[in-house]
Amino acid sequence: MTRTHRVAILFATTAVATGALHAQESGCDRPVVEGRVTDSSGQIPLPGAGIVVHWSDPSQRPIRLASDALGAFRLCPPRAVAEATVWAEFGDYTSPHVTVDLTSPRAVSLAIDIEAEAGARLVGRVSDGRTGNPIAGADVRIAERAVAISGSMGQFVVTGLRAGRFLVRVSHLGYETLEETVELSSGLTLELDLGLTADPVELEPLFVSTVRLRKLETQGFYERKTWHERLGSGTFFSRDDVERRRPTHISHLIADAPGIRLSCSSGLRGCHLRSARPGCAPQIYLDGVHLRGTSIDEVVQAIEVGGIEVYDSVSSLPAEFGGADAQCGAVIVWTR
């Protein structure tokens, strides 16, 4: 028997709607997006479910938040943003992506079902293989079935796919069609970087695939990586980087990031991370937990690491890792 979880999202835009009232109460100058996550019966709340929001304006930072003890969530949309793409994550389950019109003059109620049997997930970006510019409106097909159209930044997401080997076909007017076979696994996300070429004689299409670690995905690692790489702030090390470099201690890899250096008491042992600025040390987090007075090498080995985020200043630091004691930046280490 298939069991589903339902995420009910209510977006209100009229002055008489509930959302507008909440907006005034919360200090938001726009009607808020709010909702509640429950099980399939609609009676039992699901606290801690992840809600992910991407705005239609690519200059706006994506938002990731968790439902509260009652399964509820609420957020204030940025000004001048017309649409938002919203989805929910609960354990290994990911809902379909839903577009919310933030300019609609009426209240909109959306229901998202999270399938009990976690399928495979495909995320990707389509770009010009020569210039690297994103290609919007590319047709993405899996096993000859149309599954997605790339967005304004060339991005696409497909959820609920069956596990197995499938032919991925990407096409756009004026470019050579790209075809590659991929292996999809249940409960895992495959990330594709697809570079199309307008002249197949001079340049072959670019196809790069990476399997995302589900734990890092649900913690927002890949979203922050994409966002900060676009802005040119922050340094990120993936599991592939760790395996390629094979550091004796994970601090040795982190110290390669700009603005970070090692301070070692004896040789390469007992090393602590320091900022390049005198008298300044970054905050250290392991799986979201703030470590105080402990070397990262004392609590985690390189073989256990799935990803690393390094921010050398408070100005580049994500809000969830900020605070009064984060003036020297932060190092966030995630295990697999």
Q: Structurally, how many domains make up the residues?
A: 3
CATH architecture of the largest domain: Beta Complex
Number of helices: 5
Number of strands: 24
Task: Walk me through what this model shows.
The chain has 3 domains: 5-114, Sandwich (Immunoglobulin-like); 120-212, Immunoglobulin-like, CATH 2.60.40.1120; 217-335, TonB-dependent receptor, plug domain (Ferric Hydroxamate Uptake Protein, Chain A, domain 1, Beta Complex). It has helices spanning 18-26, 214-218, 221-231, 239-245, 250-254, and strands spanning 5-11, 33-39, 50-55, 63-66, 72-75, 83-90, 93-94, 98-101, 108-114, 120-128, 139-142, 145-149, 155-161, 164-171, 178-184, 189-196, 206-212, 235-238, 260-266, 269-275, 283-286, 289-291, 305-311, 330-335. It is mostly beta strands. A hairpin with a 2-residue loop joins strand 6 and strand 7 (93-94).
Question: What are the main properties of this structure?
Answer:
24 strands, mainly beta, single chain, five-stranded antiparallel beta sheet, 5 helices, five-stranded mixed beta sheet, about 10% helix, about 325 residues, Immunoglobulin-like
